Structures are given as structure tokens and as C-alpha cells.
């Protein structure tokens, strides 16, 4: 990966563990960054999966990423933990936007996503995983990108470090969901692309929010029938990236004991970063 890509100070990385809202975040950030290049009807988000608009470093690292170093399009995504980021990202001091989500909702979203993978990936189809097994692995931190709690904690800690490291916008999915417009404006400012007064008067931020509204994205033809086929050769139906996007959906799946087991780790690991 280090051979194919060297981060530049102009890069902006969108980071987050799996199923924490990165697909939605990519659509918002992409629309903010490219708003001067496309109008409402030509935004690529309307015809492409957000993950095809903003590549994921560890999945797409074998493609030519040098063109993405240009300051006109500096966006890249990754699910890597902070301590596993390529050294060039740290050295470049580029900006990072990190999104996290209430752990129970994260787990439930992961569970449904895994089931969706069974539709196109034989490994998941031939060896279905039970809910009980999946939650056991989640609690033990057995996942592709390591323990969820460590993933969040590392970025949280880095976001509070003001000694020359990366500038990090630490974002909770729930806050973005409950006050999308306000956070779109905050993200634009953080990215160095603040909305002008003229744009505010023309309701450009509101238009971005409307275009990237979860229901609107999930109903786009590309996200209902298309497929994401990264260079890794793993084909995933685009609809696997869109389910409900709701806060508190864990209540429809988890037993009381399952919920408590996750909450206990929340209290132990997060302390000041507790989800109600």
C-alpha cells in the first residue's frame, strides 16, 4: 500500500469502522467538495455508489491512486484503525474525518450486512453465521479491523492530541443524523470549503442534505440494482450498503442480555463517550 500511495497534506481521509455510516458520510463530503463542478442534476452521487466516488484505500490500493493526490479531489476513505494507517498519512498531517456509531446499532448493521454478503459471496452463503456467533465475535473484538471499541478510542485519542498530529473531525453518527444541516456546514468549514453567503442564500447546503438524504440515496436505481466490484474481486450488491440508517434499530433484534453485554463494554471502554 505504501508503494502505491503517498498521502499529501491536501488529502482528506474519511475514516470509520465498518457499518458506522461511512457510505452516507462519503456522499455528503463528496457533494460538499465537488459542488462547484456539478449541479443538482449531474452530481455523480445520483448515478454512482458513494464508495465508487471516493475509493477505499485498503481495497482499491492496487489501482493508480496518484491522480487522487490532486488538490481538486483529495478525498479517500479507509476503515483502518488509526494505529494501522500508512505512515505517510501521519507524516503528511492531512485532515481526517472520523465517524463512529452507537455500538449496538453498529453490530446490528454489521449483522444484516453479513447476511447480504451471502447473496454474492459463496464463503458467506455456504457457511452462514448465527446471530449468537456474530455477537460473540463482536464482543471479543474478532473482526476484520479489530475490536470496535479500540477503533473508536484510537481516533478519539488522536483527535484530542494537539501536538502536530493530524487534525481530526470526530463525528458521531447520531449527531449527524439528528442535525445534518448543521454538520454539513461544519464539515465544509473543516474541509476548507466553507459555504459562501451567496451559497447560503441559494440554499446550497440544504440541497446537499436533500440529495444525500438516506431515503433518497437508497431509492436511486444505482443503489437498488447496481453492484460494487472493487479490484479485490469481491462483488457486493449496492443495496447491501443501504438498509434503514435508523438510530436505535438494535431494539428490533437484540435480546436484553445481548444489549447489556454490549453496554457493559461501552461503560468500561468509553467512559465520557457513552451513547444513551
CATH architecture identity: 3-Layer(aba) Sandwich
Largest sheet: 4 strands, parallel
Strand order of the largest sheet: 2-1-3-4
Beta-strand residue fraction? 5-15%
What would you note in describing this structure?
The chain has one domain (12-269): P-loop containing nucleotide triphosphate hydrolases (Rossmann fold, 3-Layer(aba) Sandwich), CATH 3.40.50.300. It contains 15 helices and 6 strands. The radius of gyration is 18 Å and the shape is globular. α10 (180-190) packs across α12 (204-211). The chain has helices at residues 22-33, 50-53, 57-60, 87-92, 103-117, 122-126, 131-140, 148-159, 173-178, 180-190, 197-201, 204-211, 214-218, 221-225, 256-269; strands at residues 12-15, 75-78, 95-100, 168-172, 227-228, 236-237. The longest helix is centred in the middle third of the chain and has 15 residues, at 103-117.
Amino acid at each position: 500500500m505504501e508503494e502505491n500511495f503517498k498521502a499529501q497534506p491536501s488529502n482528506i481521509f474519511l475514516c470509520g469502522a465498518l457499518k458506522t455510516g461511512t457510505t452516507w458520510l462519503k456522499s455528503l463530503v463528496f457533494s460538499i467538495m465537488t459542488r462547484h463542478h456539478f449541479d443538482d442534476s449531474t452530481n455523480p452521487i445520483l448515478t454512482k455508489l458513494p464508495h465508487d466516488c471516493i475509493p477505499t484505500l485498503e481495497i482499491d490500493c492496487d489501482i493508480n491512486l496518484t491522480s487522487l493526490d490532486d488538490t481538486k479531489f483529495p478525498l479517500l476513505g479507509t476503515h483502518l484503525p488509526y494505529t494501522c494507517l500508512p505512515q505517510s498519512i501521519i507524516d503528511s498531517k492531512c485532515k481526517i474525518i472520523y465517524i463512529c456509531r452507537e455500538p449496538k446499532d453498529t453490530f446490528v448493521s454489521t449483522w444484516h450486512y453479513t447476511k447480504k454478503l451471502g447473496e454474492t459471496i459463496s464463503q458467506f452463503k455456504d457457511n452462514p453465521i448465527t446471530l449468537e456467533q456474530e455477537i460473540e465475535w463482536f464482543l471479543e473484538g474478532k473482526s476484520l479491523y479489530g475490536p470496535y471499541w479500540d477503533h473508536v478510542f484510537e481516533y478519539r485519542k488522536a483527535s484530542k492530541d494537539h501536538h502536530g498530529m493530524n487534525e481530526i473531525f470526530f463525528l458521531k453518527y447520531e449527531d449527524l443524523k439528528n442535525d445534518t444541516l448543521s454538520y454539513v456546514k461544519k464539515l465544509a468549514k473543516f474541509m476548507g470549503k466553507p459555504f459562501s453567503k451567496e451559497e447560503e442564500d441559494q440554499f446550497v447546503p440544504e440541497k446537499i442534505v436533500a440529495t444525500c438524504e438516506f431515503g433518497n440515496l437508497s431509492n436511486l436505481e444505482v443503489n437498488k440494482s447496481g453492484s460494487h466490484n472493487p479490484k479485490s474481486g469481491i462483488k457486493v450488491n449496492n443495496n447491501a450498503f443501504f438498509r434503514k440508517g435508523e438510530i436505535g434499530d438494535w431494539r428490533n433484534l437484540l435480546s436484553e442480555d445481548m444489549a447489556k453485554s454490549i453496554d457493559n463494554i461501552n461503560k468500561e471502554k468509553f467512559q465520557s463517550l457513552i451513547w444513551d
